[in-house]
Structure formats: C-alpha cells, structure tokens
Amino acid sequence: MPIALFRIDDRLIHGQVVVGWGQPLELGFIVLVDDDVANSEWEQELYRLGVPPEMSVHFHTVDDAVPRLAEFERLPSPGILLVGDIGTMQRLVTATHGQVRSVNVGGVHHAPGRTGRLRYVFLTPAEEDGLKNMAAQGVDVTAQDVPGARPVPLAELLTSSSAA
Q: What is the pLDDT of residues 67-109, one digit of tens each?
C-alpha cells in the first residue's frame, strides 16, 4: 500500500509533511492534488524546493489524480497524497469509490467563519458536513498533526472546542 497517508493540510508541502511525516513513513513521493497548483509551474517549483531530491513530487488536479491512484499504489516506496482543503478531499473520495479508506486532517487553520476544534483544526459548518460525508462513505476520518500525536476520531473532533 504505497499511499501511506491521505492528508488534508492547507499549508500543502512544508516541513511538518516532509520531515515530520516523511521520515517516519520513509516516503518516496508526494502526490499534491490541487487544481490551481497543478496548473501553475512557478507554484510547483516553489513546492519542489521544500522536498529533498530523493523524494519525487507529482502535481495533479482531482480529475487527473483519480485514474492515477492505482499507479501510485504500485510504486515501490510509500507516499503521501496531500490536498489543501476538505472540499478537494471530498471530491477525491467520492470519485474514487472506496479507494480512499482513511483521511488525516492535519491542518485546517483559522479563517473567518471557522470554529476552532483543535489547535490546528478550524472548521466551517460546510467543512464539518464534508468530513461527515466522507465518513458516511466508509472513510476513517481522524485529525492528527504529527505522527507521535494521538489520532482524534471524527466524532471527538466535531465536539472539541479550541480557542483561536
């Protein structure tokens, strides 16, 4: 199972993903699924700068990523599939019909209209509904910022409260 983690993190590729998750999972690749970044060469170059040379990065739109998931699953080293928002992950989950079995909510930061659930997760009602929708499709949704932290189950996440 080379895609070791399906992660939502609005910062996309950064140190916590590359080092914090990359080293313990021994990642060989990152699949960044973002419609805007997939169409922007300069943004792709910026994200590549934060990744060591031995780790490959693949940039895809949701529509491009769906048919390639099986190909990524066959790669010899584990990888992470990363999206920047709940809506994108929900689209991916729905389009893959059961291929995504678990989702890690790793960082959805403060913005107007969002309620703090954990120190690293702030959600709008629509985003909460998106997570519930994924769970209703059989996906195990948990929040966890770093590998050593306890995974917070969705039901607990949605009833948690954190000051902004």
A: 999 999 999 999 999 999 999 999 999 999 999 999 999 999 9
Helices 62-73 and 86-96, axial angle in degrees (round to 10): 60
How far, rounded to the nearest angstrom, does the alpha carbon of residue 94 sit from its chain's CA centroid?
Answer: 15
Percent of the chain as helix, strand, coil, to the nearest 5: 40, 25, 35
The one-letter amino acid at 32: L
Q: Residue 98 region, left (φ>0) first, then alpha (ψ -120 to 50), else beta?
A: left
62 CA to centre of own chain = 13
| Whether 120 contacts 145, CB under 8 Å | yes
Nearest to 131 by CA among 147, 114, 111, 148: 114
B/e letters for 130-147, b = 16+ CB within 10 Å, e = fewer, are bbeebbeeebebbbbbee
Closest CA to 105 of 113, 93, 96: 93
The pTM assigned to this predicted structure is: 0.95
The tokens describing 65, both together, are 């990523």
H-helix segments, 10-124: 15, 22-25, 35-38, 41-49, 62-73, 86-96
